[in-house]
Structure formats: C-alpha cells, structure tokens
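Quality-control log, excerpt.
Job 1 of 2 completed; input and output follow.
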Amino acid sequence: MDDQLSLPAAPLTVAAGQAVCASLDLVANAATAADLVRRAADRGADLLVLPELFLTGYELPGITADPGRHTTGADDSRLDPLREACAAHRTALVVGAPTRAEDGTPRISALAFDRDGKLAATYDKQHATPSERDAGIAPGSCGTTFVLDGWRFGLSICWDSSFPEHARAAALDGCHAYLNGGMFSPGFSAKANSFLFPARAMDNTSYAVLANHCGPSGPYSGGGHSAIWGPLGELLADAGTADPGLAVAEFAPEVLRAARAEEPVLVDPSLTAPVRPRFVGGAL
C-alpha cells in the first residue's frame, strides 16, 4: 500500500468469541455463530472473530470424506443466518470454515463478512500442518487483508501464528491487527496466551486477536481463553473458559500511533520480509 503506517480515523470495538460447536453440523453451528454475533453486538462490537473450522468443528476425516456436503462458500444458503445476523446488528464477522479449491480439494479457511452480511474476503490457511496435509487439506497460497471502517486486518488460522513472518507480512501490508481463529489445546493455549500472541502483537506494533475453541472438537479439546492484546503485547481481554464466551476490546488509533512511535519496528530500513501475493477485501 502507498502509506504503510497510515492509521484509521476512528476507534473500532472487536470481539473474540468461543462456544462448543456440533460435529459436522453446519446448520447448527451457523445458528450458534449468529447468536454470538448478537451477543457481541450487544457489547458494542463492530467485528467478531470465531475459531478455526467453527462451522463444522475440527473434523478432518468427515470433511475430506464428503467435501461436497461439509464444505461451504459464498452461495451456500446454510450461511444465511450469518448474513442476516451481520446485517441486522451491523456487525462484521470472521469465522472458520472448510471450503474447496478450484480443483475440489478441501481447504481450511476464514470467511469474512462485512456489516451488510456480504462475504467480503476468504482466507485459506497457508501453514497447513503435516497432519492436515496428510488428511487431504490443501494449503493456501495467498495472504488476505480484510478492511473494515478503515481498519486493516490480517487474517490467519491456528498454526499460521507460529510463523513470525506471517504476521509481519500482514503488518507490511499496512494491517493494524492480526486476527487468528485457532484450535489450541489447554496446554498450547497457555503458551499462545502467555507469549506467542503478545509477541506477534509487539513484533509488529499491531493489535492481536485469538478466537479459540473452548470444548471438544474432533480429536482435540480447545482450551478457550479467546483473547485480545494491544500493540505492545498487553492483554486487553480474555474470555476464560466460558461457553459461550467473548473477549471484547476497543481498538484506538491513538494507541496504535503511540505504540508505533515508542517501538518503530515497521520503519527499520533493514526490513526484508516479503509481503508476497495478498488479497484485500472489504470496504476500502
């Protein structure tokens, strides 16, 4: 972008949500997600982030065995409750779901809906784990920036967050926050919350958001503690293990400005991390 360090004009309230989801039941999980949109809107949220594969659960064998049934996309009527909830409450949504590549191969994706309920961006998980690849999941090849009310959000999914260059690529595209939908066990979520996501925030003087599963899903059990960190790594909100649960915080341009003045890591002339191909969706 032309001005990597440009800032949005006004504050935005963001929520990270969690709830136990139903195995391979996209209709039921869409209803749960729509209810979380309502709950987030009641707390003033302009944007809600939900976990990895929230619309089906982390059910890789079932997804890859019948991708025609268990994947979704822009024209899927089963997503109508999400579109309607976003439009009714004027709240945007990023939610994890399985999708398919053009050749039909399943992918782990994040779907970003704008305030009108329109699908504005789709991000495909770039760092698919070895077990996900073995199960037949194809990794994505392109980063994604979702724009809402002048705020630029870098989308990520679970293991993406373990690669510092993934968050840095978002920051170099001008992102003000790094959003992650995860499936982290209680043990790993303790590490993610104590140092991984604070580091991703401070590495890039960007807000960081984790929406994590809070119950059993496929072979795993999520540790909850969906949370939000400020641009110097400070914890702003934590949902604990509540089901359903929300972590809600205000993102403020002046806080970003002060953090980037205090830690000017994005203007170091030695920066070499490539942005690589990147899709930008949403209202600019």
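Job 2 of 2 completed; input and output follow.
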Amino acid sequence: MSFLAVLAAGLSSYIFGAIWYMSLSRPWLTAAGIEAQEDGKPPNGGPVPYIVAFLGAVLVAGMMRHIFSLSGILEMGIGAGLTAGLGLGLFLVAPWIATNYAFAGRNLTLTLIDAGYAIIGCSIMGVVLTLI
C-alpha cells in the first residue's frame, strides 16, 4: 500500500504542476528568459522534462512518506500531513530554489513561480500520503 500512496502523491503533485505551469506559462516563460514559438509553447517540446518532473515528484513523495512514517505523521491525519508537507516545501525546497536562482541571477518572478509550485506540491503530497 505504501508504494501506491507514493505513486498517488507523486501523481497528484505532478497533475497540480501541469495546471500551475499551464496557467502561469506566459509569466514563467518571460521570467525564465525563454522565447515561445508562434503557438505559445517553448521550443523544447520533447518528453524529457515531463518524464524528469514525474520521476522527481515520485522521489520526493517517497522520501516524504519515509519521513512521515518515521515521525508518526502518517497516523496523525490530514492536518498533520498538510502541515508537514507545507513545512517541507516552504522551509526546505523553496529556500533551496531561491538560493540557486539568486546565485544564477534569475529574477524574483521565476523564484516565486517555481517555489510556489514546490510549496503547494509538497502540501498536496502530504495530504495524499495521509489519506492512503
């Protein structure tokens, strides 16, 4: 059952990411300095970024489940899962993204879009992991 929970949590965050980035595609492209093609899509239309994103989401969900299991969060319910996921996204992942982008000279908009996805995505994973 834990493998199914990890897959469900990873997939849930991945689906949220698709919605997040589709709705913020123009500001993200501008902030990332990527020129869109005439159809509005970025030039790297291949499957590799999507595969990497899905595998990354599953890996994060797997580690989150491990942390949740060791700390007893899985037994505490949805509220604890949401809080722990939010905390991991807000206090571990987002600062790491901000640090990388600051050293790379990226702009604040890109940092906020990408860190926002990490924060909400981890929160979703936390909820899903405590549901299954």
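Post-run check on job 2. The longest helix spans residues 78-104.
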